[in-house]
Amino acid sequence: MPHNSERRNEDQEEPILAIRKKNSWKEDFGSAVERERIAEAIGVLDAQKTAHAGTPRQAIKLQAAKLIRSHYGESTPALYNTAMALARSESEGAQEVGLVLLGQLFAHNPEEVTEIILKLADSVNWEVREWAASALRRVIGGHFSAIYPTIQAWALHSSPNIRRAAAVGCGSAADSCSEEECRLMLEALTPLLEDDDPYVRKNLGAFAIGDSLMKEQPALVAEWLGRASSHARAQWNVAMALSSAEAAKHFDLLADLLWQLAADSRNVVRRATYKAVLSLAKRVPEEMSALLEAWKEDPARSHVSDHVNAKLR
């Protein structure tokens, strides 16, 4: 058994060795990038895959993108070429790193960048699709006029993955867009209100619209929702937007929509309306209690009052 001083040295070395082992991927990746051995760098990334997504953790991918930028410089042709090589590789982790870089390199070759984002937005890997939507967000924020026709086209695309990317990309880009740009995005997304694909509808009303666009442009979104068609799925999306946490902050803008929804007798709309009203009743109880009380005596809306009050007991 080592004496005390030796034991202290061992104890001091263990965390150092742990840190070195933890960061060894970074050293290996950085070395490969410096030597411009992209295939080798991709191999280092692939060794960091998680079982959950089949790609490295987010922090690793962002650090990898940072190392590449540091080596090639910001917005250089060499950086663009490397980003395209990563995005076109067979490695899903490398594709995501490429998307991080390409989201800010759109001006180098708009057609080529749009093409690769489209391809990866339709990936079989759900996480790659997320990073593709994030790349679209960056392009929207920096090159709105140039990318807007693409948003319009993607909202009508045959693939639900691409339609969903249009919705998520627009929603997440709302905080970097002007009021007029947000208005145009809403108009582009209008056909998706009637989209019945589960992947699209799961991400549209409650998230892209309710959580994101409504946060930035509540009056604009309220007016747009008020013009939604009478299609059952469109009204379902209106209700889902009203179920978001942001909706409670703008109750005065949305009360008329809520009144309209409460009288809709279609089951798909009714279920979403129950969810919206219950969410609002928990977040703005004073405003909703008065409304629910009034609905008790309204034959068209009493079912909403009965359902929500039962849930609140």
Give an overview in words.
The chain is mostly helical and 313 residues long. It is built from 19 helices and no strands.
List keywords for this structure.
single chain, 313 residues, mainly alpha, elongated, disordered N terminus
In short:
The protein has helices spanning 4-22, 24-34, 38-46, 58-72, 77-87, 92-102, 110-121, 126-142, 144-154, 160-173, 179-189, 198-216, 218-226, 232-242, 245-248, 251-262, 267-283, 285-295, 302-312. It is mostly helical. The chain is elongated and about 75 Å long.
Order of helices and strands: HHHHHHHHHHHHHHHHHHH
Report strand %. under 5%
Q: What share of residues is helical?
A: over 70%
Multimeric organization: single chain
Largest sheet: none
Q: Average pLDDT, to the nearest integer?
A: 92
Uncertain stretches = 1-20
Beta strands, count: 0
Query: End-to-end distance, in Å?
Result: 66 Å
Number of helices: 19
Helix and strand content put the structural class at mainly alpha
From the alpha carbons, calculate the radius of gyration and give it in angstroms: 25 Å
**Gross geometry:** elongated
List the topology elements.
Blueprint: H1 4-22, H2 24-34, H3 38-46, H4 58-72, H5 77-87, H6 92-102, H7 110-121, H8 126-142, H9 144-154, H10 160-173, H11 179-189, H12 198-216, H13 218-226, H14 232-242, H15 245-248, H16 251-262, H17 267-283, H18 285-295, H19 302-312
Helix pairs in contact: 2-3, 2-4, 4-6, 5-6, 6-8, 7-8, 8-9, 8-10, 9-11, 10-12, 12-13, 12-14, 14-16, 14-17, 16-17, 17-18, 17-19
